[in-house]
Amino acid sequence: MTSERPETLYEAVGGIDGLRRLSDAFYDAVLADPLLAPVFADFSRTHIEHVAVWLGEVFGGPAAFTADLGGHQALLRAHLGLAITEEQRGRWMELMAGAVHKELPDDELLRRCVMEYFDWGTRIARDVSAGEVGEDLGEPGPTPRWGWDGQA
Fold first, then answer.
1. Gap between the Cα atoms of 31 and 123, Å rounded
2. pLDDT tens-digit series, residues 27-82
3. Minimal CA–CA distance to 45: which of 70, 8, 20?
4. 138: buried, middle or exposed (CB in 10 Å: 19+, 13-18, 0-12)?
């Protein structure tokens, strides 16, 4: 890779197509994993697209998750009641690291930035998942953005 990096992580991962491949590889592993499959009992293939669109927005691409899928509030609410354990969060990170290695460009800085976002985001998801379905989360603010230097 040249010393000149794309401006956004979105561009660096290959845009929406790269994020779809990442999500697809990741969820193939998740659904086969005995520890994580129960968390995704209501999984649908549409979930892969929604995750790719979310990540696209977070990594500096189009704000389509906010415009079309309910934004930050909807993402957080989807985790309510899941009671994600730290063991499950750790396994999620292991499987995502495998998908990142398989699907993203061979660029250690890119992979590290992406994994730092996932570490940050899965901690929030774990914490929110302890809440009851329908709980008032308040206003979480806009969809977070993540770049080469972490949270923007």
1. 21
2. 999 999 999 999 888 888 899 999 999 999 999 999 999 999 999 999 999 999 99
3. 20
4. exposed
Residue type, 5: R
- Side-chain-side CA neighbours of residue 41 (13 Å): 6
Residue with tokens 């415009």: 67
* pTM of the full structure: 0.93
**What are 97's two structure tokens?**
């690291």
d(CA 142, CA 148) in angstroms, rounded, equals 19
> C-alpha distances in angstroms, 66 versus 43, 53, 70, 75?
21, 9, 5, 10
Amino acid at 33: D
Place of tokens 């696209």: 56
Q: Amino acid identity, residue 63?
A: A
Cα gap 126→106, rounded to integer Å: 29
**Tokens describing residue 69:** 């899928």
pLDDT digits (tens, 9 = 90+) for 87-110: 999 999 999 999 999 999 999 999
